[in-house]
Design a protein that fits this description.
globular; 22% strand; Aldehyde Dehydrogenase, Chain A, domain 1; 13 helices; six-stranded mixed sheet; alpha/beta; Aldehyde Dehydrogenase, Chain A, domain 2
Length: 478
């Protein structure tokens, strides 16, 4: 398609093909057909990118925080000006609705502006001394060149959090972008090139993920690793980084519970959770999946959520009438067609949806299952698709126990009007994030991260910049 660009590698400030000249195909999820290609990096390209990152770190770490902030803000301004064109590219390669792509770009601009502000606030601290004539202070320095690995579900914003925090902290960054959705992230990175970022401070490569991760993490140039993706791959990344004693931030999978208490506002819960569940066709790490509903409300909530699911028009993300776009790739279709029959065979009931739509593109019906036993695979594996499970509970203690049953602990949600219930949820639910009576997650100024198998560390908020800096204690006696 004429309006979808082929994507190159950014190495030492230059966009170019890989050393082998090979490219990987990019598909449009709405049709299943090819729309372009992305360059494949070879080991020689990675070595050049690493050398450039080392050079870029020497320049950028010595750049005053005030100047770093100005450049980040300039890039954010360019991104805002180009957001409509980039949003269309994003929808073409990823499938999400154009309005969702526009929101992703708007959030990216907001995040970069926030990181620009934070760049000027990397304060140290003074520590009262135990004797006269002694000063004690803690200073924060950039940790070093960063290797960042990002997935395809939010191809702009998953880069934004790593790029913004790294640049604000004074680090150079080498990004391994998603091969299935490369062009929108590359267009965003171009804003930094046009804003005047020095060569080597930001690099972008694509290729065979396992080969690139092993090569970059093993390099002595890289001092920090940031990864967003599945728990299975996150464990491998953590093991590789640990072998070389490198700092790691991991934002991994989830299986978010939603506790709907007996006093909840059902219409509000259905409105908020339908928007959250079917956002990006459910391909969101914080997507609500296990709906734990008080037994007195379960039927009513299922009807309300089902009504909202059936009302969604499924189609091409570029069509303004579309309420949910396609899944991003055929692997997600295959997983839906494994999980749903397994849940039904285990004794669950199909309330809404449950089937693929057509054979052109990767469309799937918004699906609601009810009364699914805990033994079913969907109750124990992240679906990463437009499937919600509604199960009943009798006591709040039962609901919290089910919410905490799995090893993941990323996002969690709840609906209640009782202060005592809020307090019990705050204390009892084990998760990195808990949003009650609304979806208030993933803001620029708030931390985003999980516990257990959902990863370690946070992206967003002041916590994000902490991961890209190291403290130095300095004491002086007069």
């Amino acid at each position: 398609m004429a309006d979808y660009p082929d994507t190159l590698l950014l190495i030492d400030g230059v966009w170019r093909k890989g050393a082998g000249g090979e490219g990987l195909p990019v598909l449009n999820p709405a049709t299943g057909h090819g729309i372009g290609s992305v360059a494949r990096a070879e080991p020689a390209d990675l070595d050049e990118a690493l050398a450039a990152a080392a050079k870029g770190f020497a320049i950028w770490s010595a750049t005053p925080a005030h100047d770093r902030a100005l450049l980040i803000r300039k890039a954010a301004t360019l991104l805002a000006e180009r957001s409509e064109a980039i949003a269309r590219i994003l929808t073409l390669e990823q499938g999400k609705r154009l309005i969702e792509a526009r929101y992703e770009l708007a959030f990216a601009v907001e995040n970069f502006n926030w990181y620009a502000e934070e760049a000027r606030r990397l304060y140290g601290r003074l520590i009262p001394a135990r004797g006269p004539g002694i000063s004690q202070k803690v200073m924060r320095f950039p940790i070093g060149p960063v290797a960042a690995f990002t997935p395809w579900n939010f191809p702009v914003n998953q880069i934004v959090h790593k790029l913004g925090a790294a640049l604000a902290s004074g680090c150079s960054i080498l990004i391994k972008g998603p091969e299935e959705t490369p062009a929108s992230g590359a267009a965003m990175v171009q804003c930094f090139v046009d804003a005047g970022i020095p060569p080597g401070v930001v690099g972008l490569v694509f290729g065979i993920p396992a080969e690139i991760s092993a090569h970059l993490i093993a390099s002595p140039v890289i001092r920090k690793v940031s990864f967003t993706g599945s728990t299975q791959v996150g464990r491998l990344i953590a093991a590789q980084a640990g072998q070389y004693l490198k700092s790691v931030t991991l934002e991994l999978g989830g299986h978010a519970p939603v506790i709907i208490a007996a006093d909840a506002d059902l219409d509000r819960a259905a409105d908020v959770m339908a928007g959250s569940k079917f956002l990006n066709a459910g391909q969101v790490c914080a997507s609500p999946t296990r709906f734990l509903v008080h037994e007195s409300l379960a039927e009513g909530f299922a009807e309300r959520l089902g009504d909202r699911a059936r009302a969604l028009a499924i189609g091409d993300g570029l069509d303004p009438a579309t309420g949910m776009g396609p899944l991003a790739n055929p692997r997600r279709i295959d997983e839906m067609e494994r999980l749903i029959p397994n849940a039904l065979a285990a004794g669950g009931r199909l309330h809404t949806g449950g089937n693929r739509i057509g054979n052109d593109g990767f469309f799937f019906q918004p699906t609601i299952l009810t009364d699914v036993p805990a033994s079913a695979r969907i109750m124990n594996a992240e679906p990463f698709g437009p499937v919600a499970v509604i199960n009943r509970f009798g006591t709040l203690e039962e609901a919290i126990a089910e919410a905490n049953r799995l090893p993941w602990g990323l996002a969690s949600y709840a609906f209640t009007r009782a202060t005592a219930t809020v307090e019990a949820l705050e204390q009892g639910v084990r998760a990195g994030m808990l949003s009650i009576n609304h979806n208030g997650l993933a803001l620029a100024e708030t931390p985003f991260g999980g516990i257990g198998d959902s990863g370690q560390g946070s992206e967003g908020g002041a916590e994000a910049l902490n991961a890209f800096t190291v403290p130095k204690f300095v004491t002086l006696a007069a």
